[in-house]
Design goal:
The structure is a homodimer. By secondary structure, the first copy, chain A, is of the alpha+beta class. Helix content of chain A is about 30%, strand content about 40%. Chain A has a single domain, classed as Nuclear Transport Factor 2, Chain: A (Roll). The first copy, chain A, contains three helices and seven strands. A five-stranded mixed β-sheet of chain A has the order 1-7-6-3-2, sandwiched between helices. Chains A and B meet through strand 2, strand 3, strand 6, strand 7 and helix 3 of A and strand 3, strand 4, strand 7, strand 8 and helix 3 of B.
Chain lengths: ~130, ~130
């Protein structure tokens, strides 16, 4: 895939997350996907995302910055959302917080094969003080 | 700059950090550089790095993954190092820890104009338990 093609494909993946269109997830995520070193597979990946939406009902993925060099995409995602209970081990408990995630993806045959994600936990802690 | 040129330039910037060659930093970092929303300027950026090396004498920047789409670079950096005291608000106190930083850079005229960095603080916390 070219850079414009992969960039567009990444945007469509993010749209799938925001629509919670779990039936389409497998078009974008490889059967044997690995997330932060854990071999989740697409079923485990879907379960992780579904749990995220239960923990954060107003979850929305916004692409603040994207860098694409096939077969890799890096994105800075921004979240403005309201975790209902604990989140990342922090007692957020219904506070609305603003934070970012810097995440790298390796794509293979048009699907995400591996993900390396870091969420800005320190930014959330600063908002809870 | 092309993707290969900017990728090489980024590697040279990382070499400057690892050599603590602060006299050369201005070749790679813009006078008015902004880091995580703070207008540090190159002097403030140099001071931040010098303080990092005082806090972590064995600090070494290793590029685990790089995604380059001019004028942007995204990198996943890996650290295996020994903060002497507190680090990111955590009592590391001479423990050797392993963690990553996912970081985005916007370049302008061959120098870094803006940086958006997230360090995996949760990974360090897990190693201190």
């Amino acid at each position: 895939m070219t850079t414009p093609e992969l960039s567009l494909r990444y945007r469509r993946y993010i749209d799938v997350l925001n629509r919670q269109d779990w039936d389409s997830l497998g078009e974008y995520v490889a059967d044997d996907v690995v997330h932060n070193g854990r071999a989740l597979g697409v079923a485990g990946y879907r379960a992780m995302l579904a749990q995220d939406y239960r923990d954060i009902p107003d979850l929305h993925f916004a692409i603040e910055r994207m860098v694409c060099e096939p077969p890799h995409v890096a994105a800075r995602l921004r979240f403005h959302c309201t975790p209902v209970g604990r989140f990342l081990g922090l007692d957020v408990n219904g506070r609305t917080v603003d934070f970012t995630e810097n995440v790298f993806y390796a794509w293979r045959d048009g699907r995400i094969a591996e993900v390396w994600s870091v969420i800005d936990k320190a930014a959330i802690e600063a908002q809870l003080r």
